[in-house]
Amino acid sequence: MNLKKILLVDDSEMDNFINKTIIEKTKIPVAIQIKTSALEALHHLKELDNNITLFPDIIFLDIRMPLMDGFQFMEEYIKLPQEVREKCKVYMLSSSLDPGDIQKSENNIGVEKYLTKPLAHHSLGELIDQ
Questions:
Q1: Are 23 and 32 within 8 A, CB to CB?
Q2: CA-to-CA distance for 120 and 125, rounded, in angstroms?
Q3: From its phi and psi, is residue 4 left (phi > 0), alpha (psi between -120 and 50) or beta?
Q4: 121: which DSSP letter?
Q5: Which residues, in sequence order, are bridge partners of residue 92?
Q6: pLDDT, tens digit, for every residue of 38-57?
Q7: What is the pLDDT of residues 63-115, one digit of tens each?
Q8: Domains of the chain (ranges plus CATH)?
Q9: Residue 11 near residue 37, CB atoms below 8 Å
Q10: Closest to 111 measured CA to CA, from 87, 95, 91, 88
Q11: How far apart are CA 53 and CA 48, in angstroms?
C-alpha cells in the first residue's frame, strides 16, 4: 500500500488534533499535514508548483473558517490544473447541519463528498484507499 498524503484544513486546532488521531488509528500509512486556514492551505498548494507527486491525495476541508471559507477555497482550488484536481480528492468536513451547506457541497464540482465531523463517523479505510 502506498503512503497516502492527507491535508487537514480547519481553523480549530482541537478538531485537527482529533481528526489526525482518528486517521492515525486506522494504521493506514499516511503523511498528514495540517493547515489552520483556507488561505494557508491554498498558499501551500500553490507552492507545490503543480508537481503532482507532492500534492495531497485527500483534503479534508472545513466549511466555516474566518477570512476564507471552504467554498471560497474551492473557487480557487478548481483553477488548479486538471491533473492536480484528478489526483487530489476534496471532502468537505464540517459540523454544519445547514441543509444549504450540505447541498452546496454536494453540488460543488470539486467536492467528492460532504462529511460530518468527526471523521470517526465515517469509514476512513474506504475513503483513503479509493
A1: yes
A2: 11
A3: beta
A4: G
A5: 61, 114
A6: 999 999 999 988 788 899 99
A7: 999 999 999 999 999 998 888 888 899 999 988 888 998 899 999 989 999 99
A8: 4-129 (3.40.50.2300)
A9: yes
A10: 91
A11: 9
